[in-house]
Amino acid sequence: MMALKESNIILPGGTTCPGCSGPTIHRIIYNVLGQNVIQFGGGGCGGGSPRTIPLYSLHHSGVASGATGIVKALEAQGRTDITVIAMAGDGGASNTSFGKLSAAALRNDNMIFFTLDNEAYMNTGVQKSDLTPYQAWTRTTPLGKPTKKMDLPMIMTYHYVPYVATVTPAFHMDMVRKIRKAKEIKGFKYIHVLEPCPTGWRSDPSKSIELSRLAVQTGTWPLYEIENGDFKVTYKPKELKPVSEYMKPQRRFNHLSDTSIQEIQQMHNDDWERLLSKDGTNIW
Q1: Domain limits, the chain
Q2: Is residue 98 within a helix (H) or strand (E), and if so which, with residue range?
Q3: Deepest of 53, 98, 101, 224, by most Cβ within 10 A of its Cβ?
Q4: pTM
Q5: pLDDT digits (tens, 9 = 90+) for 178-201
Q6: How far apart are CA 131 and CA 150, in angstroms?
């Protein structure tokens, strides 16, 4: 086991919904990185939680470029002791701020960019993003989103950045190890975090961590890392659980028939097999 010291960076008085997995995710990130951090974030739900580190927050569309400004200022001062992190929600990363995210990655700016993916624009009322799952209900897709979820981690991989990883709070030590690794690598690092949202997912607030575990166990959210193109699956279930075990506790999928769920099951099976075929190879 890796020792992890409580950083106490997040203070009491947050404004998140009951059952939000965001504070747990933030606590893990800060406990790994420590106090010597500057964060730039978008206007997401977590922006209302008080912290003891410098935190700058603008509109969804400015996350990566704002963090780049901090990186360049530190480089001009010769500072190498501070970790710069950027945090965006799935809408900010995949839609409104994607151009700036892509540019920062192509420049290989020295930051860790976290996408906190709760799979819709939750802070503004549950509108779909490009990272909303196929057939999921949102207020702008009342009959279900008709397109598949964007594979943003793989898109970032083909910006040829030194490190990309997927994580979830249920697999805590996997997440800790990947953040520690990212901290030690110079250049642009991208970490994609599944962030269960009981408000938008219409799920039991007490089941958020359980859902993030089921996402991995059903193959819906595979855990992997890509270091300089070397692809490694970091958790392989002996046997994938049925995707229905993950979907049925979420009322955003209540409109789906058994036939539709079976279609999604086959899509996930195919995606999992394609993922396993990459394991242990260099995909660049």
Answers
A1: 22-278
A2: helix 98-107
A3: 101
A4: 0.96
A5: 999 999 999 999 999 999 999 999
A6: 5
pLDDT band at residue 3 using 50, 70 and 90 as cut-offs: low
Q: Which residues have CB under 8 Å from 15's CB, separation 6+?
A: 45, 48, 49
Architecture (CATH level 2) of domain 22-278: 3-Layer(aba) Sandwich (3.40)
Which pair of tokens denotes residue 241?
A: 């659980």
Beta pairing class for 188-194 and 111-117: parallel
| Phi, psi dihedrals of residue 239, rounded to the nearest 5° | -150, 130
For residue 251, the number of C-alpha atoms closer than 13 Å in the C-beta half-sphere is: 8
The C-alpha atoms of residue 18 and residue 26 are separated, in whole angstroms, by 16
Would the CA dihedral through 64, 30, 45, 215 be positive or negative?
A: positive
User: What are the CA-CA distances from residue 263 to residues 21, 130, 243, 270 (Å)?
Assistant: 29, 20, 10, 11
Give me the pLDDT at residue 43, please.
63
166 alpha carbon, distance to own chain's centre: 7
The structure tokens 């993950």 sit at 246
Q: How confident is the model at residue 5 (pLDDT cuts 50, 70, 90)?
A: low
